[in-house]
Amino acid sequence: MPKKDRKKSRREMYGKGTQKRVKDSYDKSGAGGGGILRDDIEGGQFWQAKDGENLIDIIPYFAGALDPDSAHVKEGDDVYNVQVFAHGRVGPREQMMVCRAFTIGEKCPACEYRKKLLKEQSTDEDTIDNLKVSRYPRVIYNVVSYNSSGEEDKGVQIWHTSTYLMERFLGSLAKNPRMKGGGYEAFTDFSHPDQDVGKSISFTRQGKAQSTEFIGIKFVDRDYDISDEILEAAFILDECLHIPTYDQAYTIYWGESDEDKYDATAARGHGVEGEIKDDETIEDEEKVKSITRERKRKKKEEPEEVIEEDEGCPHGGTFGTDIDEIDACNEICDKEKWKECAQERDRMDEEKEKKKKEKEDGGTGRRGTGRRR
Questions:
Q1: I need a labelling partner for 209 at 20 to 30 A (CA). Which of 186, 289, 310, 322 fits?
Q2: Domains of the chain
Q3: 88 near 130, Cβ under 8 Å?
């Protein structure tokens, strides 16, 4: 496929892709880099919302070949963000780490350890909870901040935050309730560079650390176009991600290579309290739902016969418990059966969490109100 001529008609190429990205993010949200971004981004400056009022433009860019959402984003598409699932600050350095399992559908050592503890019915519930991946992914934008003349002079900066705090609200704001059908045309293309289409975003940041929240999020009409200079300065955000290899992730989590044997009991505590602890993270207040995960499957020259069963694991494993623990999960398991197994595993986790809360509440069965993180 020929590459787009970015200099010849860059402005004209924005529109359909970014508008579709708003819809995709809206659909998903119903459901510094901190280790998620590379540390060698040339010219990269990281933006952080200040206390009080903030005014920004989100700048679109053309996707590279590394966007994790490859089912919806192809190289050269015009987009305005990239999203990844992450584990909280883990390992000896207590850093945030992209979850390989939920982000790209490949093995993740942190997830493997959590599944091992669950399978063994471990009483180390703190570590099990710490390693759970939030259903709200992290989101990265290119932004220009108008909080001060100094901020504006910095030009395009990279903003890493939570979809819980920002993206889910943008999707709701962008949806036009007067337009029926749910297609991308029903969404405001707020990152579009032209003033008669795009919008600035205003919001107020309040709270500190784990209680941080963004309130009063709204679109503001622009009386200017985003300049070609700004568009050219936007980072290709998928190329800025640090998605570790399995060995790199293993070293981040355990502090040693995969070749070294580890003592599971001695390694406890590598997860930290909370799913993801940084100054812009909030704990889910709703019941955790199953996350639809897309996996890369190995192609087989000759398909193997699969025994069809209405219930249970058709490959000899324990349904809901042995997911991704046996070879058949990644090689010959039917996609729908795998999804059902993943949902059953999540249901079992939720049931265990419910029993834990009931025990903490003295057996009354009361549910907590949800503590912000």
A1: 289
A2: 1-293 (3.90.198.10), 308-362 (no CATH)
A3: yes
